[in-house]
Design goal:
Elements (H helix, E strand, L loop, with lengths): L9 H29 L3 H28 L11
């Protein structure tokens, strides 16, 4: 498995990237929920809550995959 300049293999880097972006988006969606609620659009607020929940599940899945890879030969030097 290739290891880039970061010391992380491609799969670990990709998982970390998806996890970061999912968590960042989840933070932003909180404001979107408030905006929709303030506009009286509970339907849209509900949609944003659903999207936030999906991103939270994505971040959690990445965390589990990374945990599983830690200490394995697949993790590369940065996760070992």
């Amino acid at each position: 498995m290739a290891t880039g300049e970061t010391g992380f293999d491609d799969v670990s880097f990709d998982l970390i990237s998806v996890q970061y972006h999912s968590l960042k988006a989840g933070h932003d969606y909180g404001q979107y929920v408030r905006d929709a609620e303030n506009a009286g659009r509970d339907d849209i607020a509900s949609f944003f809550r659903q999207v936030m929940s999906e991103d939270s599940a994505r971040a959690d899945a990445c965390h589990r995959f990374l945990k599983d890879m830690t200490g394995s030969a697949d993790a590369g030097p940065a996760l070992s």
